[in-house]
Amino acid sequence: MDKKEVTNTEFIAMLERINAEMSSVYEYLEAREIQLCQDAGSEDELLFAQYTMRSLEEAVMELKTEVSKYICIFQRLAHGNLG
User: 0.70 exceeded by the pTM?
Assistant: First the structure.
């Protein structure tokens, strides 16, 4: 299998695209939470929808934060500034 070398700039661009996609996922989850809450037939369903969707939203934001950290690291690497 051929391996393709990826430049630092390409890798940063890839991470930035992932971050942008996670923003879209987060927006979708927020909209879905609203819909699920509106469709809830009972207090238990409402609480479950809120808890589930907020947990997913938090997970997406945590991933987004981690990817942002790597973007910063690789940008600093690209500029020779890790100190």
Answer: yes
Residue range 46-60, pLDDT digits in tens = 999 999 999 999 999
Question: CB 9: neighbour CB atoms within 10 A?
Answer: 11
d(CA 51, CA 29): 12
- Counting as low any pLDDT under 70, the low residues of the chain are 1-2, 82-83
- Which helix (H) or strand (E) segment holds residue 38: the answer is helix 8-39
Separation CA 6–CA 64 (nearest Å) = 22
- First-to-last alpha carbon distance for the chain, in angstroms, is 37
Taking alpha carbons only, the member of 60, 66, 68, 65 closest to residue 24 is: 60
